[in-house]
UniProtKB/TrEMBL annotation:
This is Molybdate ABC transporter substrate-binding protein. SUPFAM superfamilies: Periplasmic binding protein-like II (SSF53850). Keywords: Metal-binding, Signal. It comes from the Bacteria. It comes from Modicisalibacter tunisiensis. InterPro entries: ModA (IPR005950), ModA/WtpA (IPR050682).
């Protein structure tokens, strides 16, 4: 007759071994060992800077930060439909306001970053530096069959700012039919990088992140509403890990990362 592996041991020894085994299993259990996870939904234009900030933060904290990048409009709609975001980092205040109006509770909202709008050209362009609004119109840089890449002005923040900028220059009506509308600003940038559109309107930070486009010039800041990036906790009470990461993002260490990628601190962004 075969016995169990513990059958030859005293009951006290067996109990001790079972307790030790249970402790060891608990210690090694992935569920027990896993770091807390924080999901942040963020504007596509934040991709490079936020990835770098997350890497710095995770190096000093036992936490797993999971970024989800999309147009701010897309991210806001996903959150409103129940996507499990603990933080929302938008490229404009409009979509943060919209999300707050959708019975989604936001907390500790702060305007964190500013950006600028620039005109970029495809690789190998022979165009010289060009300042929008300084005389020659943007449409003069396009051949009859060429298009201008932008984030979709109907909902993408970069496209909304682009429309405002073109309206202020008196070029919206002429250029609207010639827009190559992209789902987010990085998609608009990609159209120019691939040479599918000779020109594009993107953020300064996007132009700096790419070695495949040539920045021609910066749009006048007074031609559109300020490009502001608000940050907020979603559906609090937030986890301690989410709250700690939010607080770190508003501090000087994170701001140094964002500035390295071309962002500037918002007027009332950091404490």
């Amino acid at each position: 007759m075969h016995g169990t592996p513990l059958s030859g041991l005293s009951s006290r020894t067996a109990t001790c071994l079972l307790g030790l085994a249970a402790l060891l299993l608990a210690t090694l259990s992935p569920a027990q060992a896993a770091a807390p996870r924080v999901t942040i939904f963020a504007a596509a234009s934040l991709t490079d800077a936020l990835d770098a900030a997350i890497a710095d933060y995770e190096a000093d904290h036992d936490v797993d930060i999971v970024p989800v990048y999309a147009a701010s409009s897309t991210a806001a709609r996903q959150i409103a439909h129940g996507a499990p975001a603990e933080l929302y980092f938008s490229a404009n205040e409009q979509w943060m306001d919209w999300l707050a109006s959708q019975d989604v509770t936001l907390a500790e909202r702060t305007d964190l970053l500013n950006n600028r709008l620039v005109l970029v050209a495809a690789p190998g362009t022979s165009l010289d530096a060009f300042t929008p609004g300084a005389g020659r119109p943007i449409r003069a840089l396009l051949d009859d069959d060429q298009r201008l890449a932008v984030g979709n002005p109907d909902h993408v923040p970069a496209g909304i700012y682009a429309r405002q900028a073109l309206e202020s220059l008196g070029e919206w009506q002429a250029l609207e039919p010639r827009l190559a509308r992209a789902d987010n600003v990085r998609a608009a940038l990609a159209l120019v990088e691939r040479g599918e559109a000779p020109l594009g309107i993107v953020y300064r930070t996007d132009a700096r992140a790419s070695d495949k486009v040539h920045q021609l010039g910066t749009f006048p800041a007074d031609g559109h509403t300020p490009i502001t990036y608000p940050l907020a906790l979603v559906d609090p009470p937030a986890s301690d890990a989410a709250r700690a990461f939010r607080d770190w993002l508003t501090g000087r260490e994170a701001m140094a990362v964002f500035e390295r990628f071309g962002f500037s601190p918002a007027a009332a962004g950091t404490p």
